[in-house]
Design goal:
The chain has 78 residues and is of the alpha+beta class. The chain contains two helices and four strands. Strands 2-3-1-4 form a four-stranded antiparallel beta sheet, with helices on one face. Strand 2 and strand 3 form a beta hairpin. The radius of gyration is 12 Å and the shape is globular.
Length: 78
Amino acid sequence: MPFFGKKHRLLHIHNNVPGVLSAINRLFAENGINVSAQSLMTNADIGYLVMDVDAACSHVALIKLREIEDTIRTRVLF
């Protein structure tokens, strides 16, 4: 398994409105995507979420992040 134990770090920039983080966590849980680390920073308008997920799930995670209504930008950092 080439991805066993490997993590990818994802970035999600979004409008800072209530419910975005819970929507992300709900979509990930529904799709069996485990988050091994997560960090959130916000200001009055923008939220900046960085999270580590299993590399084998990162493509699906990226697709699901783009489905979040208030997403501004998302990408795999590494």
